[in-house]
Amino acid sequence: MKWSNRVQIVTGQTCVHITLHLLLIAALVWGWQHHALFQVSSVLLAMYASVFIVMLPAQRLPRLRRLGDFLEDVTTTYYFGAAMLVLYLLSRVVHNNLLLGCVGVVMLTGPAVVSLLAKEPVRVRR
Asked: Which residues are listed as membrane-spanning (predicted)?
C-alpha cells in the first residue's frame, strides 16, 4: 500500500488537502505576524471565489467531472474558513456586533437551509 493511501485512511483527507490546510495556516500566521492579515484574508477569499467559479462549469462538463469533484471537495472543506474570513473583513469595516452576529449565523446556517430546501420532492407511486 502506498504511503499516500495510508495517510488518507488514517486522516480521512488526501495529501493534497492536508497540504492545502498547512499552506492556509501558514499564510494566515504569516499575515498575522507581518500585520497584513487584512490583505492575506482578501487574497485567500479571492482565491476561494475563483476556485468556486471554476468549479461550477467543471461539474457540468463530462470531460472535467473529476476536476469538478475535486474542486467541490475543496470548496466544501474551506467554506466555513472562508465564512470566518468574511466575518473578519466585515468586522474591520462594520462595528455593530449584533449585525456581525446575524451575518455570521446566516452564513453558517445558509448551506444547511439551502440543502434542505433543494432536496428533490419524494414521488409517491400509485
From this structure: 7-30, 36-58, 70-91, 97-118
Helices of type H across 15-96? 15-33, 37-60, 65-77, 79-93
Residue 89 is which amino acid?
L
How many residues does the structure list for the chain?
126
pTM of the model: 0.77
Give dist(CA 28, CA 89) in Å, integer. 13
Supply φ then ψ for residue 13, to 5 degrees: -125, 150
Asked whether the beta carbons of 83 and 107 are under 8 A apart, the reply is yes
Residue 87 inside a domain? The answer is yes
Q: What type of residue is 45?
A: L
Each residue's pLDDT tens digit, 55-112: 999 988 889 989 988 888 888 888 888 989 999 999 999 999 999 999 989 888 887 7
Cα 114 from chain centre: 16
Q: Which domain holds residue 85?
A: 37-117
Considering the domain boundaries, does residue 30 fall inside one? no
- The number of distinct structural domains making up the chain is 1
In a domain, 94, yes or no: yes
